[in-house]
Queue: 3 jobs
Job 1
Amino acid sequence: MNLSKRQMAARVAQDIPDGSYVNLGIGLPTLVADVVPPGREIVYHSENGILGMGPAPEPGTGDPELINAGKQPVTLLPGGAYFHHTDAFVMMRGGHIDITVLGAFQVGEGGDLANWATDDATMPPAVGGAMDLAVGARRVLVMTTHTTKDGRPKLLPACTFPLTAAAVVDRVYTDLAVIDVTPDGFVVREMVDGITREELQARTAATLHFGVEP
Amino acid sequence: MNLSKRQMAARVAQDIPDGSYVNLGIGLPTLVADVVPPGREIVYHSENGILGMGPAPEPGTGDPELINAGKQPVTLLPGGAYFHHTDAFVMMRGGHIDITVLGAFQVGEGGDLANWATDDATMPPAVGGAMDLAVGARRVLVMTTHTTKDGRPKLLPACTFPLTAAAVVDRVYTDLAVIDVTPDGFVVREMVDGITREELQARTAATLHFGVEP
Amino acid sequence: MINGRRHVFEQPLHADVALVKAHLADRWGNLVYHSAARNFGPVMATAARLAVVQVSAFVELGSLDPEAVVTPGIFVDRVVVA
Amino acid sequence: MINGRRHVFEQPLHADVALVKAHLADRWGNLVYHSAARNFGPVMATAARLAVVQVSAFVELGSLDPEAVVTPGIFVDRVVVA
């Protein structure tokens, strides 16, 4: 029933149009690059100063200084470019990134995003470029499990963790559903097979609405 | 008696140490580069994006896009670099320019500089990078005729024209004298041959003090 | 006041359209400039809603040195060879 | 408020010393970097009172392409080859 991480990534990838400038957040979202349908030319941005990032290098062939923001080895496609931190953030803050895919600890029904700090003192907070991406990208997609490992809902009437940004999330992709953030709150567009509306609602703290994509 | 423009430039050039980063303002100050004593390596900055600017090219050999901020053709020395407007101003505002030599309409005895607009409506104001240089350069040298063409003093108790920057001028080089701006006001360090203190004071609206260089 | 020193806060200016001259461009819009012609182009390209660039030549994707690209293509919307 | 949108004004941070890693330097302190190692170095070099740079090699003045210098030497105070 629940989508695997790779299946979630594939669902996100469907919604990334050819020719987009895309920044994939550290963690789960980086899987998206592996499952983009063939034939689409996506230009990946990394906030440590790369545009036109390619897949991970063959083992043993990588350039130790060519890494993404998550410190994983990557490659550069023909047409790629290097630049410094400030220019990387000018791209993000200036609205030049078409789509960012970010992980989340919590999403509020008004589109608030919390993805950098929890109430768990053993997990050090880590914001990276998430605030700038969340505010600056034209479209903010969230990719996350529907609930925490111990079953607590992540989709809430309002976030309880510190916000990354307010009212920025456009769509949430979970292992159970695809959910839009609308002026009316969360609207479920797709559900995995084998789950009912009531079961999905039971795993969600905010009220869910159900509708077909406009 | 009065120094020629080239003599004024030579006097300024004496005070530019080997290895300095220098920005020469448009007009009179550009002459300084021609008369720097041989053996001194000066790195000239131009706010249109050049560091390591060399002398004017031989006639007919210039690169039409390699020009200084005054739109005169220049060359690039080995070690020179090109950069964009913002980086050029980061150098100026960030305190990286050791010395700037600027022209002036008026200098106040507190070190105020007015060099971008007059009360003459037929002369369009033009500020260029002067405000950023005047505030950002570590040392601000002014090179100007002692009086206007019609004999009005340029060294005043306070400027009457709009200021470029307040309390920034370190030293003024005129065709008659070398004058420091000190906490006590203008202190004359050198005078040309054939002029008396009284004659110099008569051409100066602010009170002049006379002293040897500390 | 920043660090005890007075500063003027200038509001950022945005342009609807920037017309920029560069030297070479590739299909992604990556640009290199020629000498002091670099002055305003790279800055304005980042600040405009639409950046239209005139270049002297269009080159194959991958033939510009990624270390020497001055304006990454993300800031460029249209390229005209003239 | 800038253009009707709320912004946070962050005070600029200055460093007394920046320790930067670059790829090549010349006698004037001009620097080029290698791929994504460019990230923070060029920015911090401009913001520090003293910029100390480690490079893998020191090259002849004039051998770095003036169009491709990333950090002009004016921002660099000391260079160490290591």
Job 2
Amino acid sequence: MNPEGTNMMHEFVLHLPSFEGPLDVLLYLIEKNRFTLEDLEVCPIVDQYLAYIESMRTLDIALASEFLDMASYLIWLKSCLLLPTGEVLDGSDANNPVQELKEMLIAYRAIKQASSDLSSRPMLFRDRFPRGTAHTEQSLAALSMGNLLQALHELKGRTRKYVMDVLASRFSIHEIMARIQGLLSTNNKIRLEDAVTSRERMELIGAFMAALEMSRVALVRILQRRVFSVIYLVKR
Amino acid sequence: MDTREIIEALIFSAAGALASREILKVVPDISEGDIADAVSELNGIYKDSGRTFRIERASAGYMYVTLERYAPFLRSLHNPSRLSPAALEVLAVIAYRCPCTKQTVDTIRGVDSSSSLKSLLKHQLIDVKPGKPMRYVTTERFLEVFGLTSLSDLPDLGQFEELFGSE
Amino acid sequence: MDTREIIEALIFSAAGALASREILKVVPDISEGDIADAVSELNGIYKDSGRTFRIERASAGYMYVTLERYAPFLRSLHNPSRLSPAALEVLAVIAYRCPCTKQTVDTIRGVDSSSSLKSLLKHQLIDVKPGKPMRYVTTERFLEVFGLTSLSDLPDLGQFEELFGSE
């Protein structure tokens, strides 16, 4: 590797922890080359980015797949620019790939700016501390959807596989079968839709499957006089 | 910066009582006696400027309390009802699986859920569906609390697990 | 007893931010404006007597916080959890673009944001919006933490809004 490349490699290694992703690397390179986003020379940036990827590989540093995706995107972009297609990539065309890259970078730069704005605000628990409170339980008024989902997630972590199997479908066929059996303990004949408590399609499908299963094990007989007419379940 | 003020800020921001040794860790070169002096000076300042709180010495350390004469107002302050992590779990199971029996909840959670069910019933977040076996459903109040218009608004569990399950 | 002092005791004793309407329930015959006046008078008293805390207006109401200059001492007591730069970026996208999907966040950042989303959810800085697909929004807690009264307090990002209309 040439001396310049080695140099760059070290520079990147020093900077590596602060890169948040491939777009962050590109912004760094653009700034280092004193380009502006509006007046961007793509080819040198592409080359330097690829050199970065290469040096990371040489050093056996694991790169997130996004960095490699970006590399292949940039190679494609560079080939577009080098091919003598006669098309002018001057930034005026909406489908212009350079323009697309610029927009990505502008959006990312805006977000980087916004996150540094956020970080510069006096943050609670970092710069300002609220009057202490010993409450650890969740106040009802502050409950969020996230709390609910996380509760389920923690549950899953505790009881493993079984939970998700059960939770995956809100309508278990076994439960509907139990319901049908309950109904048939007082009536000899019920309508299939009596076993459905909601109006949801998934539950109706579940009820139908439950009926088929019960018919298979000879618990019920299924009766339907005409196509699309009412389906009855009769106790056997 | 005045040591006394640092001590004030420390006790102020602590959850519950703050032990002297915690203060000594943060503010070096002072003694227990210095802390006691600072606290009594602070209480003097509060008294003179008509403040409604004081720092009190409790067995576990120093803590802020409001003066007794304000208690009637504080008592009438709506005491926010709280939900334990267990109750939240039960609620989540019922939301995604309703109507369901206590047995289903217990099986999924691997523990008995009686007290959580009671607390959720009390908070009117769940209700009992008529019929046998006894089954639980979430209520209108549940929808209100979580800003849902119906249960079908519940986020997709699979998508959430994709995010959280990637460990 | 002075209304101002009752208001002080109420906010002081609340766990977290106390909404004006809670204060209005307890102290009759006053207006929101009276509360704001009382709070600014109280802050004046704290300032003049050299106190280390102030009452701040948060989105959800009023809350006590310590002054920034005491933070170095308090940090060692609280061991605050820090937000990573990645998490801050994700938070910024969601704040400016909420509600938005994980895909939007990933696209703008050019990297996968799963672990940041997880940590932000855990810290209750973001929440999941009811409905499908799963979309994220910032929370009241987010506003509190960054000292904002609403999302419109955020500085204008200019071109950013043009590039991405809300979902």
Job 3
Amino acid sequence: MKNIIRLLDRFAPVMAVVCVLGIWQAATWLFAIPSFLLPSPTSIVAAGFGVDPSVWIGHIWATLRVAVMGYALAIAIAIPLAISLSMSRLLSRTLYPMLVVIQSTPIVAVAPIIVVTLGAGDMPKVVITFLITFFPIVVSTTTGLLATPEELIELSRSLRAGRTREIFHIRLPYALPFLFSALKISTTLAVIGTVVAEFVAAEKGLGFFIAFSTSFFKIPQAFSGLVILVLLSLTLFRLVGFVQKRFAPWSLPKSER
Amino acid sequence: MKNIIRLLDRFAPVMAVVCVLGIWQAATWLFAIPSFLLPSPTSIVAAGFGVDPSVWIGHIWATLRVAVMGYALAIAIAIPLAISLSMSRLLSRTLYPMLVVIQSTPIVAVAPIIVVTLGAGDMPKVVITFLITFFPIVVSTTTGLLATPEELIELSRSLRAGRTREIFHIRLPYALPFLFSALKISTTLAVIGTVVAEFVAAEKGLGFFIAFSTSFFKIPQAFSGLVILVLLSLTLFRLVGFVQKRFAPWSLPKSER
Amino acid sequence: MAANPPVIRFRDVEQIFTGNDGRPIHALTGLDFEISRHEFVSVLGPSGCGKSTLLRLVSGLIHPSAGAVEIYGMEVTEPRDEIGIVFQKPTLLPWFNVQNNVTFPMRHKYGRVHKEDNERALELLDLVGLADFAQKRIDELSGGMQQRVAIARALLLDPDILLMDEPFSALDALTRDEMSFELLRIWSERPKTVLFITHSIPEALLLSDRIIVMSERPGTVREIIDVPFARPRTMQTLSDPAFTELANHIRGELFSKPAAA
Amino acid sequence: MAANPPVIRFRDVEQIFTGNDGRPIHALTGLDFEISRHEFVSVLGPSGCGKSTLLRLVSGLIHPSAGAVEIYGMEVTEPRDEIGIVFQKPTLLPWFNVQNNVTFPMRHKYGRVHKEDNERALELLDLVGLADFAQKRIDELSGGMQQRVAIARALLLDPDILLMDEPFSALDALTRDEMSFELLRIWSERPKTVLFITHSIPEALLLSDRIIVMSERPGTVREIIDVPFARPRTMQTLSDPAFTELANHIRGELFSKPAAA
Amino acid sequence: DPVTFMIDWLPAGDKAPIYYGVQKGIFSDAGLDVTIAVGRGSSDVVTKLSTGAADVGSGGLSALLQAVATEKAPAKAVMTLYTKQPDAIFTTTDSGIEKLADVAGKKVATATFSSSNVVWPLVLEANGVDPSSVQLIKVDPGALAPMLATGQVDATINWMTVAPAFAGPMKEANKTFKALPWSEYGFDGYGLSIFTSDNMISERPEVLKRFLVAYKTATEMAIKDPEGAAAAVKVMVPEIDEATAAEQWKASIPLMVNDVSKKDGIGAFEPELLKATWSWVAKSQGLAADALDPESAVNRSFLK
Ligand SMILES: Nc1ncnc2c1ncn2[C@@H]1O[C@H](COP(=O)(O)OP(=O)(O)OP(=O)(O)O)[C@@H](O)[C@H]1O
Ligand SMILES: Nc1ncnc2c1ncn2[C@@H]1O[C@H](COP(=O)(O)OP(=O)(O)OP(=O)(O)O)[C@@H](O)[C@H]1O
Ligand SMILES: [Mg+2]
Ligand SMILES: [Mg+2]
């Protein structure tokens, strides 16, 4: 009995995916859904294999590179920013609205500026990805830093360790659940951000590939790009979960350690 | 002295905005930045007043309506979803990957399906907004629900109150800082989502207005739309902060109550 | 008293935790005793000997690694209705004020709080000396005050079985005495079975019918002492020479083993 | 002792909190006393009378609403280096194991932990009876064990001034006695000024040079008692008739006022 | 000499000349090192040219006129490609739309930000149709073919060059495709043209000239060799479907080689037609007819 539950637990995600695919395939058959609307899994796979592997690798590499760089940049900027915001009420009241402004500006509207200012190449795409990715990290980390219980702060203050150590030894560890939650959200945003950037300005990458395929109404091929993209997101998402489990197990709820 | 600090604190945000605008205006003059690249604040304001107020109202209303409906839908679905995810490990392992899949699917790629399936009107836009908005709420709320200290859970279990009450009386209140952090992130996502939706299918709304103005090279006018959009985001963001302060002050850090 | 069936029964209970490093922590071993209906039993023992663990076993929050815990003759597999608990930490909810923390069991268990519950909460708060603080928030209370709120909360539902883990540890001598006598009064007015963890030997003697004295980790029952003093007990009981004698005996019992330490 | 300048000095200190409802809570009033160098002073008083608040004032974590607190003649405006604190709650960091919690003051104050610090931490853990638990995580400890970790932590930096808020409240009688004597030993080997909050009158008598007895809220000094017993004090001191007499006096003092209660 | 050429939309068969020229070495023979950049619409190309992100580009002439009129964009048109407007109504044989006027009372889908949308009402009026009688639905370009194929709309508005891409969905839906070019219903003017920046004109006129000559040669050769043109695109854009690309390229040839270009010569700007192009823009944008002298937006000096 226990074994069955364990097996179920282990394979449930896989089974769920298989189920969804099955229903999808069946639906495309039964209702004769045209492939230009919602291609069947088999036609997507076929379309995927129809594209040269080297072409795939080129697009995947372009997207992955930009996504990871943008994500890394977002983390590198968002965390110090969150720390500054949590340390100074003045700063927080001044910067926060500006961050909201940046975050809520539709990238497409300012993309020309970014592209013109930063030239061609990966830079503008990295920046666009960064802009889409960093905000949740800032908000979540700031919330976590500020949510640290008073008593732990008093412990730190009583040791006169200074603000820096208070942040790094107390507030940041305490904020890790918040931070990791944001990092998870941001993986998918990084990928989405890259895709948006590739829609706006690119000659390569999965986003470009999808837009390109769509412009020819080759929907199964577009979907095969989509599948790769989604796998990329899932991998990054899982990776963050893995890092958390490996390096900060106490920031996970007991049931997931 | 104290008064000065208070004044500074009070007007810092406004002053910062004024500063940024000043620098911007000066830069456009000094470096003769062409207005099709980055229009000056004055030209943006001029362009904004050049548009008929009733036209503005039409666009703002269209965007606001969709953004708020999408946001509300996201909350209405994300919170129950987060509760389910936090309650069952099996569900969480099965559903989480699918949510990541949904979240990391670029809307533009599936736009045809959405438009064809849901037709014209607000529906597809609300759905798109919802899709972009709900993920952070799910992730953050789930994290918060699971982060509830063991001792509070034991208190609940010792009263044999059942899972539902455990969720609503213990876990949800505890998760509020997480939830509100996500709700803040999501306001801007809701607006961005609406704009994206308006790119895909719309004949009204600020996103439409901006893209439309851009495609006709009326860049200052596009920026005036951008400004309105950003103000909308800021208002929603503030509103969430206000709701938290008003209805759940204890979920705020001491310094911000 | 022997005629009554045992309310709580430990059958050769053993508790082994798995530490985060994967190594087992042997907390309790060979616990085997009974507590009768309406008995007041105290538990004394060195820090870390497994008292709280014992209480959590009775409450059904954890399950023994071996043996069984029974309540009213039924094996405990999950928390039960008739139990009220005071945890070692106050465990109050910061999003409620003091009064709502006290009425929380009602709200949490039955979904709503009646006027009578609120009145009862105010009575209980008065009883623990916090009538003025009903509307305050938890973080405005001192440590001892928080503990008293937790006591009031455990009493709200008037449970058949009351489990208390060092409920008076953060209280001063006077408040502690007052609370002890209040507890005795409640217990005699509305009889209930009480399992009471404490570090104070006089307190245990003053309150209990029997005292379970535990040994160091892995915790086991070293001796169960019948407390002979007649009830109702008063301040006078404390000056009874037999009281001092028994206290010294227990003290010796507790202090005896660790000659190595 | 009078020749030394006062280490801690309260000058007519008053503390008023603003409650979350905006109403003032009058916690302390008219505190005016001095504590000399290397003096061991205990504070006794009813729950909620402001003992923890008094300690937080000395530590510089909060500032008095009126009057001033001075350390070595200088007004306290922020926490100072020479102070070690045991808070009323253990306040341990769940992301460190026990040993790292003990060495935390070193890490936190000076940025790194030397080999000697780790050795010292292990010594201190041995002293509080937790040598076996150095590598455990905080949530695997019992309440009393956590409190002992907090004590070890406060001793790590060997502070000139030691502030302890009910440090032994969660400990059994034996451990409590052992810890008391350990504390006395440390205090006599490396003299320091100690402010010690407790609810145990015998403990206060056994440990201190003077005892500050406080009255109910708003807390103020009711009496300051010189403890006459010669040092080193031992278990024998406890059986001195003068000891019992003084204990009864303090008891009377603490129990006197609230006839209304 | 390095030249960055920006095509106005994603690579497709109708963009073949530039690929053909690169592949066949026409540009390198002319001493040009051409980089192809992908723009996102005509106005994007104008922006990129104005800011120097690209040297030469292709785009709809209307967009340039508009940009010069309203923003004084420092860019000029230097050569025409399409001498007929490429906009068209796509429909199916069973829709009952035989001529443009038949769209009255029908459902028509268009890409949200298509430049066609603005002139659409004017074209309708010119054909005696009340624009409000047509139910216009604006959607993502990717949704156009599916909507037409599933019968959710009766027609779509597209450029002629897109027609071959509709073939797949149409075939799957068992419908027969039909296109009604607006140019046959009175919508005249220049379409796709070659733009360059004022900077390029003043600083590297000689390079520009060489480029235009080479481009013209490439175009002419590509017209004669449609399969080769498609193959050239396929080499540089491996994702493309060669057959579709060839179809697209063939579909764009009539826009370039027609009675107009035969009369005026390939690439020439004829003043009357230029004025007509501008008047459509001015009317549709509500600009005064004299807001711009269309001559000021073109530079004919690079055409032989
Ligand atoms: N942050 C605060 N805000 C408002 N009131 C407070 C705050 N801290 C303490 N008080 C009030 O001040 C009074 C003294 O509190 P304090 O914690 O100093 O008591 P104490 O003597 O340490 O009590 P105990 O022995 O129970 O720990 C209490 O009435 C409490 O309600
Ligand atoms: N969740 C747990 N995981 C691992 N070990 C645990 C856990 N809970 C308790 N222990 C261990 O079990 C033993 C008994 O703990 P318990 O809390 O029952 O002690 P206690 O008698 O209540 O002590 P105290 O008087 O200090 O509160 C301790 O050694 C403790 O380390
Ligand atoms: Mg315990
Ligand atoms: Mg206190």
